[in-house]
Automatic annotation (TrEMBL), chain A:
Keyword field: DNA-binding, Transcription, Transcription regulation
Gene: blaI3
Similarity annotation: Belongs to the BlaI transcriptional regulatory family.
Tree of life domain: Bacteria
UniProt KW Nucleotide-binding keyword: no
Protein name as it appears in the record: Transcriptional regulator BlaI
GO biological process: negative regulation of DNA-templated transcription
GO molecular function annotation: DNA binding
UniProtKB/TrEMBL annotation, chain B:
Any Pfam family matching the protein: Peptidase_M48
CDD domains: M56_BlaR1_MecR1_like
Cofactor note: Binds 1 zinc ion per subunit.
UniProt entry keywords in alphabetical sequence: Hydrolase, Metalloprotease, Protease, Stress response, Zinc
Statement: the UniProt record of this protein carries the keyword Transport: no
A single GO BP: proteolysis
Residues in coiled coil: none
Record's protein name: Heat shock protein HtpX
Domain of life: Bacteria
PANTHER family linked: POSSIBLE SENSOR-TRANSDUCER PROTEIN BLAR, SLR0241 PROTEIN
Membership in a protein family: Belongs to the peptidase M48 family.
Organism: Streptomyces lavendulae subsp. lavendulae
One term of GO molecular function: metalloendopeptidase activity
Amino acid sequence: MDSASERRPAGELESSVLAALWAAGQPQSAAQVRAAIPQPLARTTVATLLARLHEKGVIDRSPGGRGFLYFPLEDAHGLTARRMHRELDQDGDRSVVLARFVEGLSSDDEAELRRLLEGGGQ
Amino acid sequence: MIALLLVPLVLPWILPPLARRAAARVRPEAALWTVTAAAGLLAVAVVACLGALLLPLALAIAPLAALLHLIRPLQAGPEPVALGISALSAGFVAVTGATVVRRGLSEAKRLRGAHGDVAHLPHVGGLCVLEDSRPDAYALPGLTGPGRIVVTSGMLRSLDPHEREALLAHERAHLAARHHLFLAVAQLAGWCHPALAAVVPQVQFAAERAADESAARATGSRTLTARAVGRAALAATRGGPRPGGSVLAAGAVTGPVPARVKALLGHAPVRWVAPVLLAVALLCTTAGASALSGAVWLHRGVETAQGE
């Protein structure tokens, strides 16, 4: 067990587990979740995290082969996402205060980026 | 002597090239602080000078002059020049004030709307996931409490587990360092002066770079973080044409994303202080000194007109 990742705030580990469940796209067993997060965690830790997420009503579970299968709870058909996109992208006038992870790329940017990622450097 | 009050209106044009060099050569945290502080200070100087320049025009109006007990007209240089400059600054003040109020309200409304949208969604550790195939992720600053990290399922599916961690660490860094305050100050300054508007992208870039470096420290790998940023950007671009994308591309050889990836793949700038930061400090001092001596001179003029 890696004590460094165990020491991380509980919220960070919970959000990693939630992100892994969303990324999977289909119900996952506890063992699959454990394999899909980069932090090396004990089986019991993953079970605790999943139970806590379930209590908070963020994920649900259904009985599967050996134990439960877990999946994230969705809001009504991406309604929120559509509303936010509409609100945040009014007339191409972007919110400055809202720090977006990445913006769309121009074609030059895209070519340059592919070169950088494939070349692994300069 | 009225020129003393005009100098701070011209000095902001020196900031954009300095900001570009600072963003490229200094530690992102240092660049973020310096450039934001400089933009804020220069904006204050601009507003103060515009305000002071209103005086000659205002005091040419008899009732206002009587209010200040002027017994003779204010001498602020050759009358047509002084009144002309004064009238121009009245125009600038009106336009700037209207811009700040209008854009400021629309930004506040937008943030409140975004908060209202995610308020009903469950979240853990500040993370809120939206069911949406379009890859997107942002740090939604808290208006009263802590902020939220909002990520679409499409973004999570485009990244591998390690890259996901880099993304979350990046957004956590934005919220923890309260980067939205820096961006708000820069934006506010940008509405006050066109040259300061040109500095907003540099502040945004410095904030992204600071969050990238923070994510690299959290995940223990700068290469991994570079890959996460790069793959997220490629996925977001594949997600279809994005509104506003063309605005970004205008005139720039490479946009901010390739520059961020390049910086992460190369050596990080480690300098906290560089000549460029000293130049920024000198610029702010000059603007402040000029505005202050201009105001003192104008104050003396008013006292003279009051017969003291």
